[in-house]
Amino acid sequence: MLIASQMEPTYARRVYPCFDEPAMKATFNIRIIHDPSYVALSNMPAIDVSEVKDENGSLWTVTTFNTSLKMSTYLTAFVICDFDYVTRTERGNEIRIWARKEAVKNGYVDYALNITGPIFSFLEDKLNVSYPLPKTDLVALPDFGAGGMENWGLMIFQEASLMNFPSDEFTRRKAMIALIVSHELGHQACEWFGNLVTMNWWNDLWLNEGLTSYFEYLGATFVEPKLSLDKIFYAHVLQPVLREDSEIARSLSESEDNIKASFSLMFLFDNITYSKGASITWMLSGFLTEKLFIRALTSYLKELSFSNANQDDLWTHIQMVVDAQDEVQLPAPVKQIMDSWTCQNGYPVLTLNLTTGKIRQEQFFNKNNRKSTDSYNNTWIIPISWMRNGSSQPLTWLDKSSKIFPEMQVSESEYDWILLNVNLSGYYRVNYDQINLKRLARLLESDPKAIPAVSRFQLIDDVFALTDFGYVPIETALELTKYLAREDELFVWNVVLLNLIPDNLESTLKNHEVYPLLKKYLLKRMLPIYHYYAGFISRDVDALEDDYFAQLYLEKLLATACWLGLQDCLDLSSELYAKWRGNPEYKIPFLIRRTVCCYGVALGSDKEWNFAWEMYNHTDSVEEDDDILLYAMSCAKESWLLYRYLQYGLSDTLFSSNRTSVIISHVMTKDIGHRIAWEFVTENWPVLSQGYGHELLHVALKVMGRFVKTDVQIQELQVFYNATLEEDEREAVTMLLESAKLENIERRKLLSKVASWLENNVDD
What we know:
Blueprint: E1 3-4, E2 31-34, E3 39-42, E4 46-53, E5 59-65, E6 78-81, E7 84-90, E8 93-99, H1 101-105, H2 110-127, E9 135-141, E10 148-149, E11 154-158, H3 159-162, H4 171-189, E12 198-199, H5 205-223, H6 229-245, H7 256-260, H8 271-288, H9 290-304, E13 308-309, H10 311-323, H11 334-342, E14 348-353, E15 358-363, E16 382-384, E17 386-388, E18 391-392, E19 396-398, E20 402-404, E21 418-420, E22 429-431, H12 434-446, H13 453-468, H14 474-479, H15 490-500, H16 506-510, H17 514-539, H18 548-563, H19 567-582, H20 593-603, H21 606-616, H22 623-632, H23 639-650, H24 657-668, H25 673-683, H26 685-691, H27 693-705, H28 711-724, H29 727-761
Parallel strand pairs: 8-9, 9-11, 12-13, 14-22
Antiparallel strand pairs: 1-6, 2-5, 3-6, 4-5, 7-8, 10-11, 14-15, 15-20, 16-19, 17-18, 17-21
């Protein structure tokens, strides 16, 4: 048995009567009566443990905790468990990490214990404040809805966020733990992000989470110096949120009324709040310089601790620091600059004309489905970091819709080039003119390292995003991929592959004339980096333990090489899979296990498939391996194996119920599997609908939608949906299928353009 609480945002009122608003702070006296074989934890240290008898004469333990500091209701917490802990004291703060007894005994939480103290001290020193509580407990729960929760003095995590197996030397797992722990400690240590200084109301949640997300990356790269702060921040925070933010109609700081009118605050706990908040903090720290930014935060924390604040209070403190010095000059008051980023939704794209040196800004939106009535006249105050011909230039600002920068006019020489938003320091995209793009493409082919890795990543990501939204033709984006044989960073390759071969389009591409061209064009460019990493896989995979991006992205590179039919990759997969079959004790390197198992099954016969099935049914397999095997078994190339797999999935005894729909959707996404899975769903619907009902229909609809190109195909799907769905849902499905059809037709047009470009460039 285990009891734990989660009060944020509005659940404290379900535990005790209170004015459950972040601005109403109080001190709390907590006492818990519980079974004597359990321990009770709360925000503060226990000051008394006594016994009491109930009316049946049973003994109970009464644990009384010290009075808390003044704090918001959503940060109160308690846990009643029979866990063990490991402990260490850092600067007088007793840190304990609690987890299931066997996890503690096996050393699974040692890594988290080793980094918690140092991150705490790092944040205290950085912000020049001291942690006000005498103890900090971190508790790992087997099941928890969030990654972590920053209750003051009693932080709660899901096990995966705190546990590292001592045998696992790889940075990937450690990096994740370091990020999550450092995020929650960022709330603790002091930051007005949350505990010491709380937002006035939930509409400023981004201050709380955005700032903490920024410090999370500083803290994690401090304890794991092998991680590159810049690259990790772009790959995990900035790039994904730029993709999402152009589709979402909400700004970072919503008005209080807008939010009070909504029934739930949960929608605020999204990527806009966390990642856009962190990205804008990153940009702010960049143009102020970190020194001034931290100085402002420190004065802010000192003045407002134990009270509430909104974003304007922070801007005021930054303004005071800026006014007191003369190195950093801003084009406008801090509030005006920052409001342009927090109070408007979306973000800008800058369009550059290098002949005239003119830059103009507009909101980045999808031009393909723009209605002529939409008007986007937002302007932002934009810091522009830039370089010319490889040397950094002084920061400049665009504070109106367009402006001429004489210093950005380039000469006739093709060696004269410009790069904006260097190192992705600003939250926007850049659209270069053809002259500059040609020069950058040429530069990449002759000397890719002249452009920093993060800027290569950004250049490619921007140009593909501009293509998606109808700003530039696809050919422009493809020109920038010619140099890839000289690209040796997986971090950059990954963004290329995500754009050229998105996971959900593999079967579509495989059935299109573009495939053989893509194969020839890409393999030629992938070979150098493929062989570099394949060497490690066959000789010494442990040598990659500090290569964070290899752990994240090597799988996608290998899977793409195999998918493109690179013989060496297929042989490697068969060989490693056969080695495992020969000796089940052998471990296929985890970084590539999914791909190796998939192609091991695909290239084999029923013997290989049956081995995967046997291993799946081993009782002692780990969940991650189970997921890999469930996926691998859907890679079979023989229809009867896939059909048998679906049949197995249906029989209750073999699978826990949620696995069946996973199997169906795995098979459905495969090029030979999608018809088989669809027929299977329609034939077995009476049985399936009892267990999975709508959820499965939606999965099937989404996947099948990728294959519809004609009205006849839509009708075929509709016959089934009309028989199984309620009337009001049929209409929605029809619309979904219609839009899927249009999307597929558009995509085929696009793929034909890609194919003809490849045809002309495949031999370069």
